[in-house]
Structure formats: structure tokens, C-alpha cells
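FORM 7B: Structural annotation worksheet

SECTION A. Query
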Amino acid sequence: MNDKTNEMHELSPIGLLAHAIKRERLNAGLSVSELAKRAGVAKSTLSQLEGGVGNPGIETLWALAMAMGLHVTKFLEQPAPQLKVIRAHEGMTVHAEDAPYAATLLDNCPPGAQRNLYRVLAQPGRPRHSRAHPPGTVEHVLLCRGRALAGPLDQPLSLEPGDYIKYSASSAHLFEALEPDTLALVVMEHP
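SECTION B. Predicted structure
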């Protein structure tokens, strides 16, 4: 692999996952053999995962996390940008090994933060303009039905069902329904 190919692999979902598993194993001071034993997975499986090969099920990730005393989301975290959008068919998705079940982590809650969840039903017409909230406030929107514009006042994005957006609510922002009965889950995160 050349440097450019290697860099692209490291930024892929499986590359990020491989890096996170190895990082957490080293932080825990465990060898590959010891972690594999504690988690009940084959050493070769763990080596492959750390090498960016394979597609682990949620059960395998859960076993590795539990063996290190971590929550499984620790493996799925990515650096937090100021504005984050995950379209309906994007993101780090893990599948169950024993059921037709897939989970995509949209965001994780920082330590000490408080989150309030709101179900929003909006109609086309005037957009809902919100003033700046206290510093450090973050808003998350998961569009469930309809279409909408949402985000910072100077940078709203068009959302379709299943799309997710995260942005700083410490500046003016808006939500505008583009179709009747637009439904969204809105999460306000406060430090």
C-alpha cells in the first residue's frame, strides 16, 4: 500500500475502527493475546480487526469493549467537527450476527453533558428561527419524515428522512419544514 492508499484506508470506517480498537487495547496495557482471551474471541480475529481487515459484528465489538471496561461507542467515536451531517445511508454501521439488526452511531454524549430530546412536528411556511443558546450548546436533528432545512442561519442544509445534522446552537439557527407534517427528533445538548 502506498502512503495515499494507506491514508485513505485509515480514514475509512473500518480503518477508524481498527485504529480505535488498537488504541484502546494499548491504553488498557493489554496484549493482543490477553484481550482476545478476556473477550472470548480468537487472537487471529483480533489481529485482523486491528489490521483493518474484516467486518466485526456488534457482538464482537461489545465483547472487546466489555473486556476493557469500555462502552462500545468508544470504538465508533470520531473527532467532533463544528458541523456534522450524516445522510440516511452513511455512517459507521454495525450489524448483529444473529438477527436482521443494524445500528449506526450518530453521535456520543460528552462526559457531564445534559441532553433534552424533543419530537418536532412542523409545517411549511415561516421557518423557526432560534436565537443563540448559551455557549457550548449543541443541537442534533434527525429527520424522521418529510423534508426540511436545518442548521446554522448562515449555513442551513437540506435534510431528507434519515439524515442527521449536528451543529453549534451557540449562534442563531433555523428549522424550516419543506413538506406538510415534517417530523424530526431534536436533541439539545448542554454542557
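SECTION C. Observations
Residues 1-9 have pLDDT under 50 and may be disordered. The chain has two domains: 3-75, 83-190.

SECTION D. Sign-off
Analyst initials: ____
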